[in-house]
Fold:
Amino acid sequence: MIESQIENQIAEKATALFGVVDGIHDILVDAGVSAPLASVLDEVVSVGLLFLISYLADIFVRFVLYRIFVRFAHFTNNKWDDAFIEHKVIKYLVHIIPGIIFLIATPVAIRSVFWVNIFQKGAQIFIVLALMKAIHASTKALTDIYTQSKDYSDKPIKVIFQIITVIAYFVGGIVILSIVINKEFTSLFAALGASMAILLLIFKDSILGFVAGWQLSANDMLRQGDWLTVPKYGADGDVEEISLYS
Structure:
């Protein structure tokens, strides 16, 4: 309900702004420009105004909203917000707002159905990529937070969050593919279910690493700081980390 109200408000404001652009067509025609050329120029101005509004919105969220959150985090004793700022989680999230504005205002600014579809798909892909980056950055922040805790120092925290990152990129890739080919996410995901054997083969090393991490943790076989020697592979030194890839 709240999201629909916000979308309606953005659409109303965009309509009011682009209503000014609609008058350009009449001005050009009165100035002697042919109607087809005036329509093209009107469309170009509308697209330019659309990008300008999205760019200004991006500047606002980066230099106003983001800095407000950063200052608020400095006044708190919580380590969570500091970790999220350090890994740019909030910075990626605020980029979603200009993408939403661009997505909603596109049908108002552009009359051509073809270009509306192109720009809306681009905006949707931009939003998905921003969310994927935010999730990836969140896993890094949460890894730093939990590895500093004594309760989780001997747990494969990094492995768990790396698995979450892999799943997020996998789902995000399917979402982007569904946007590009204009297919429903659920139907596309169901179709990929038939190719699960191939997916398991692709992510074999990740799955084996995840299982190995849990086995090491459950049996308390290896910890950070242990001295490990494997002459066969020329390994001789301290264990620095236990993760999905190392």
